[in-house]
Every structure is written in C-alpha cells, then in structure tokens.
Design goal:
Structural class: mainly alpha
Strand content: under 5%
Helix content: over 70%
Order of helices and strands: HHHHHHHHHHHHHHHHHHHHHHHH
Number of helices: 24
Oligomer: single chain
Low-confidence stretches: 1-12, 271-279
Shape: globular
Mean pLDDT: 81
C-alpha cells in the first residue's frame, strides 16, 4: 500500500477538499470572471488596434521602473540584512526589526506624504542642504520619486525575508569558519552567498510584481504621461476617459506581462529549508574588528533613517498641522468609519477564504502526500500577485456597470477587492502552521478519537489562533489604508480617509494632508492592535 494511503488509513481523517474548492470559486474564480468580462468587451471592439505607441511606452516604463526598483531594493537590503545577521545581539535590535516590518501595514498614501516631506523639493533633507550652501533636490515627481517610494517599502520587506535565511546557518559552520580564520569576504563567498542565492530570485519576483502593479505610488508621484504605469493607465482609461476598450487592452497587456515575469522568476527560484537558530549568539570570525563594527553600525543607521525619517516627518507634520479644523469636520470621521468598516470586513473575508485554501492545501500535502497539487492550490489562491487589483477592479467594473450603479456599491466592491488582495498574506502565514499541526498531531488525535469540532477547539485553534489573528490584523490594516479600490469605484459619498488624503495632496493642501495622514496611520495601527489584541484575549479565554 502507498505511503500516502497508509497515512490516511491510520489517521482515519477524511480529506477536506471542499473548503479549498469553495474558496477557489472566489479566488481565482472571480478573477477569471472579471478577465472574461474584459475579453468580452475586447472582442466587441471594431475600431482597430487599441495598443498605440503610447501604450507600448507605458509598458516599457512599467518594466523599467519595476526592474530598477527591484535592483535598488535588493542592493540596499542585502548589506542591511547582513549587518543585522552579523550583530545578532545589541540593545534595541528587536525594536529595529519591528520598525522594518512597519511599512507592511503602513498606508501607501501616508508613506508617500512622509517621503515627500523628507526627500521632496521643500523637504527636510533639501532644506538642510540649502542651509549648508549646497543645491537642494529637484521636485520629487517622475521616476526618481517612484524609485524612492518603492525602495522605502520593499527594502525592509526584503530584509525581513532574508534574515531567517541568514539565521538558519548552523552554529557548526561558524565554529569551522573561526577555526580556519576566514576573512569577511571568504565568509560571504563560501558560507553566506550559497545560502541566500537560492532565495533571491523568489524575493526578486515578489518585489518585481509588487512594483509592476504599483498604483497609489505612481498615481501620486508619477508626475505625468512620461512616468505612467499600466495600472495608472488602466484607471485613467476607465475613470477619466471612460474608454473601456482601451482599459481592456491595457489590462490584457498587464496580465500577460506579470504572468511572463512570474514564470521567468519561478523557473529560477529554488526552495530552501530554513531552521532559525532561535537568537543564539553567533561567534563569527568577521565581526570583531573596528572596521566591521563601524560598517555594520553605519548600515543599520542608514536603514533606520530610510524608514524612520518619513514616519517621523508624517507624525511631526500632523501634530503641527490644523488639527482642530480637520478633526472637527463630520466628513472626516464619516470617512474614518468607512475605512474601518472596509478594513475589518476585508480582513475577515481574507481570513476565511485564505484559511479554507490553506486547509485543503494542508490535507493534500500532509494526508494525501500530494505536495505538488497542494502548491498549485496555494498558487491559484494567490493569483492577485499576477492579476493586479486594478485589473481585477476593471473587470468587475466592466461586468457590473451594465446592470448596477457601480459607484453606489463602492464600499462593498472595495471590501471584496481588498479581501481578495490579502488572501496571499493569509495563506503564507496560516498554511505552515496548519501543516505543522497536522504532522505533529494527526496520529495522536486518531488514537484519542478526536475529530471534527472537538479537534478544532482542542487542537487546531490553540495552535492557529495567534497566527490567524495576526493574518487578519495585517489584512485589515492594509485594507483600512487602501486607496486603489476606492479611487476606482468611489464617489464623493463613499470617500475614505485615504481618498481624502489623496485629494488634499492633489490640491496642495499640505497642512490638511498632514493631519489626515496622521489620522489614517493611527486608524490603521489601531485596527491592527485591536484585532491582534482581541485574538490574544480570545486565546486566554
């Protein structure tokens, strides 16, 4: 009898395939319906080619800025991650690592405001240079602004992804390196680089796709037709020009380009097994010299400034802004309530569908011994990395506009869109916990006769609760500060805090924008803290 069948017979556990099948109807099922709607419009077009010279210019610029953003993020992240790995113990290290995780839940529009306040033409760094008699910076729009903003978000993401790989290098390796007296270059070439090289293509793929489908950053900092990406061009065709056929053609170009890039990176990527060293002190041979200490301190300081300065600028500007005037407006608090409703609803939707997909993937991988099929379930559930939010939103727009008043349903569409966008985060967080729990407890539960609701309450939920609430907290915080869906579907009656901030920045009401940025940041962090805190209370209860 095959090993997988023997395992299933011993456990006596029926494979849970229906949760994943049901979730796949929503993702990628809804994405497929949206793409079919776009193709249906495209086949009705009889006006000739829709992809003119400008469209190809937009594609070239999209690829160009995504490539540069990926390279810059990795070139910045590698030495910073190495500095963190080399200095495994120092005061404030944990707080710094948490700071590097903050951009993940920070609203994009708030980060853009902080970046402009630091690196813009009238920003803090430019004013300092002028005061010192040096030329200041040019206005922060176009390619330079896009690259700075993308690096702000993706450099710390890459650091967080690289650190576990560095931490997984066994202590025996470092003891041998000490015995051989290896130099810093030899350590990197012979020990570190072979360990991190297999994961770099996967990290590069993630960053490239995020930058390729970036919307809010380019919308605010693009600065005109010369610095427009496919995402922004699709939005312009739908909302500003109402050229649905053109939006369809651009959306098809976007999906095809993302798919090609994803396949190319996927073929280069190789998986590795990482077992962290759990914070044990590492005795490396290349960390005792004064030069190495100064170099690592400088790298960590630059990385901290890169992330911390825009955050500090946004908070400082908000505190000194017209607080009473902005916070006294009823429409601001109404927008805050809409933001929270969208965030919590989308977070719950992402948690439900993401967990359903992860449960089926777990059963296929652990109980049916079909790891390849399980990976495909997770890949299909993560299709929003390929079919971007704007493309998905464009498909829903085209599908629904003949039948309903789309702009009256903006809140509900924003919930659905943000829920689908966050599913990959839930799968990545919840999936490993479910698989590990099944591997450790399946046989014990079978011997005790635990199954169904009893197993869920006594075994599954205690192990999963922390990760599940963290996944929902991240998803809800991201959706609370999202601009994409509400800019695509929204009207004046459905403005969120992100939309109000975008409008204030667009009309150069910088004092009002500063207060709105601070309020939006506080709202997103409050959503994150409350959801995660509720999970901790539930676990104790």
């Amino acid at each position: 009898m095959a090993g997988g069948s023997r395992h299933e017979m011993i456990v006596g556990q029926r494979l849970l395939l229906w949760p994943g099948a049901l979730a796949l109807i929503a993702s990628p099922g809804l994405a497929i319906v949206a793409i079919l709607a776009l193709l249906g419009v495209a086949t009705r077009n009889e006006t000739g080619p829709l992809l003119d010279g400008y469209s190809w210019h937009v594609l070239r610029f999209t690829v160009y800025q995504a490539t540069l953003s990926t390279v810059l993020a990795l070139l910045f992240a590698l030495p910073v991650a190495r500095a963190f790995a080399r200095r495994s113990q120092f005061p404030g290290r944990t707080a710094l690592i948490r700071l590097f995780g903050l951009p993940l839940v920070l609203p994009v529009i708030v980060a853009v405001f902080g970046i402009v306040a630091v690196w813009g033409h009238n920003g803090a760094v430019s004013r300092t240079l002028v005061a010192a008699g040096l030329p200041g910076f040019a206005p922060l729009y176009g390619l330079s602004g896009i690259l700075i903003a993308h690096t702000f978000f993706n450099m710390p993401l890459a650091v967080r992804l690289l650190l576990p790989v560095w931490d997984s290098i066994p202590g025996e390796t470092w003891r041998l390196a000490n015995q051989f007296g290896m130099s810093g270059w030899q350590v990197f070439r012979l020990i570190e680089f072979p360990r991190i090289a297999p994961v770099i293509p996967g990290i590069a793929m993630l960053i490239f796709l995020l930058c390729f489908s970036s919307f809010s950053i380019v919308l605010v900092l693009g600065g005109g037709p010369r610095a427009t990406t496919l995402e922004v061009a699709i939005w312009q065709a739908l909302r500003l020009e109402f050229e649905i056929d053109r939006a369809v053609a651009l959306a098809g170009l976007q999906v095809a380009a993302c798919l090609i890039a994803g396949i190319a990176f996927y073929r280069m990527a190789r998986s590795t097994v990482s077992e962290p060293t759990e914070g044990r002190r590492i005795l490396r041979p290349d960390i005792s010299s004064t030069a190495s200490k100064c170099g690592d301190f400088l790298l960590l300081s630059v990385g901290t400034f890169w992330i911390g300065a825009p955050l500090a600028a946004a908070v400082t500007a908000g505190i000194s802004g017209p607080l009473h005037d902005v916070l006294g407006r009823q429409e601001v608090w109404a927008a805050a309530v809409r933001s929270v409703v969208i965030g919590l609803s989308a977070g719950f939707l992402a948690l439900v569908f993401g967990t359903m997909l992860a449960v089926t993937a777990r059963d296929l991988a652990v109980r049916a011994q079909r790891a390849g099929l399980a990976d495909w379930v997770e890949i299909l559930g993560s299709q929003t990395l390929i079919v971007s939010p704007v493309v998905l939103g464009a498909g829903l727009f085209v599908l629904l506009i003949p039948h309903v008043a789309v702009f009256d349903w903006a809140i509900y569409l924003a919930i659905v869109l943000n829920g689908l966008i966050a599913i990959p985060y839930v799968i990545r967080l919840v999936g490993p916990v479910l698989r590990r729990n099944a591997e450790h407890h399946d046989r014990l539960c079978a011997s005790l006769g635990l199954s169904g609701l009893n197993r869920l309450v006594l075994v599954e939920w205690p192990a999963l609760a922390g990760t599940a609430t963290t996944a929902m907290a991240i998803s809800a915080a991201l959706a609370t500060g999202d601009l994409t869906a509400i800019v695509l579907f929204g009207s004046g009656q459905s403005d969120t805090l992100a939309k109000l901030l975008f409008s204030a920045l667009g009309t150069y009401r910088m004092g009002e924008a500063a207060v709105l940025a601070m309020l939006l940041t506080a709202t997103c962090l409050a959503v994150f803290v409350v959801v995660e805190g509720a999970g901790r209370i539930g676990r104790r209860a």
